[in-house]
Specification:
There is one protein chain. The chain contains ten helices and seven strands. With 320 residues, it is an alpha/beta fold. The chain has two domains: 229 residues, Spore Coat Polysaccharide Biosynthesis Protein SpsA, Chain A; 72 residues. Strands 3-2-1-4-6-5-7 form a seven-stranded mixed beta sheet, with helices on both faces. Strand 2, helix 2 and strand 3 form a beta-alpha-beta unit. The longest helix is centred in the last third of the chain and has 34 residues. It is elongated. Bound molecules: uridine-5'-diphosphate (UDP) and magnesium ion.
Length: 320
């Protein structure tokens, strides 16, 4: 470990970013050295198949502040970030993408807010450069839907680019759920949070590792990790079908009074029954969902609460 504990740990997940590693190291060094405080760069190699690891080792060989966590295979972006958080030693941990789409200068601004007493400083993408219209639109929609249906308030248009105080980091380390949505998890933790605006740069080297398939999976992790909305939807459908079933009875009766008993030729009762059965089934699926949701809550094993501070008690501050 470190002889001097770093003030800042910069954590970057790396998946096939060979061209970006030397630039990332140079940029982080240039920016972080201006703080005059000790820092480290924790690079997590998420099973890269290119020369990323060699580039990382080269940086680590010339600068002991560069740490490497090397995965046995590709575990995915969010897991790579998690490992970085686990290994980071700093008093503040900064998550940043390895492709320099998040400008390192913003870290200085985050650090300022942190020194002013904020425990989470997230970066809000005021503008995204060089991304397709489709990605920008789906991202915008995604953040707004998540905002509406989740139980914790996850700030709009924020990625993982953020600074977190060690108190928050300590709690995050105890959250071992498998399907992870880290920006939601940091919001869930609480403490004093604030945002800084920045312009998200275009990727200059390599290409995005988030194809549509991964984006959908990611969105689904976010929704299921922080909301039971998909399970709860059934109660509304059940309700609508139930109301339709009940309304159908007098409507069919009236229609038959007007057009004679052969109207709908015996299908009326079938329709009413279908609607009712559908409604009942969905209702009980909803009930089932409620139990599944509770099992899920327990299975996730999150801490029940997060203590910000105590007084006259011997427990360390921020311990979960
Ligand atoms: N990444 C990773 N594992 C993966 C996919 C991506 O560690 O399976 C890293 C990638 O190297 C980058 C960051 O996660 O540092 C963000 O990925 P990317 O830039 O491709 O996403 P985008 O910016 O296009 O949303
Ligand atoms: Mg990127």
């Amino acid at each position: 470990m470190n002889l001097v504990r770093p003030t800042y740990s910069i954590v970057a997940p790396v998946y096939n970013e060979q061209g970006n590693i030397p630039r990332l190291y140079a940029e982080i060094k240039r920016v972080m050295d201006t703080t005059g405080e000790p820092w480290e760069l924790v690079l997590v190699n998420d099973g890269s198949r290119d020369d990323s690891l060699r580039e990382m080792r080269e940086a680590a060989a010339q600068d002991p502040r560069v740490k490497i966590v090397n995965f046995a295979r590709n575990f995915g972006h969010q897991i790579a970030v998690t490992a970085g958080i686990d290994y980071a030693d700093g008093r503040a941990v900064v998550l940043i993408d390895a492709d320099l789409q998040d400008p390192p200068e913003v870290i200085l601004e985050m650090a300022e807010r942190w020194k002013a007493g904020y425990e989470v400083v997230y970066a809000v993408r005021a503008e995204r450069k060089g991304e397709t219209w489709f990605k920008q639109m789906t991202a915008k929609l995604f953040y707004r839907v998540i905002y509406r249906i989740t139980d914790v308030s996850i700030p709009l248009d924020t990625g993982d680019f953020r600074l977190m105080d060690e108190k928050v980091v300590k709690v995050l380390r105890t959250m071992r759920e498998h399907n992870r949505f880290i920006r939601g998890m940091t919001s869930w933790v609480g403490f004093k949070q604030t945002g800084v605006n920045y312009v998200r740069e275009a990727r200059t080297i390599g290409e995005t590792k988030y194809p549509l398939r991964k984006m959908i999976r990611f969105a689904w992790d976010a929704v299921t990790g922080f909301s039971y909305f998909p399970l709860q939807i059934m109660i509304y459908v059940s309700f609508v079908l139930g109301v339709l079933a009940v309304l159908a009875i007098p409507i069919f009766a009236l229609l038959r009074l007007v057009y004679g008993p052969d109207f709908f030729g015996g299908q009326a009762t079938t329709i009413v029954l279908l609607l009712m059965l559908g409604s009942f089934q969905l209702f009980f699926l909803f009930v089932l969902g409620q139990y599944v949701a509770r099992t899920y809550d327990e299975a996730r094993g999150r801490p029940l609460y997060v203590v910000a501070s105590t007084e006259n008690l011997d427990r360390p501050e921020g311990a979960a």
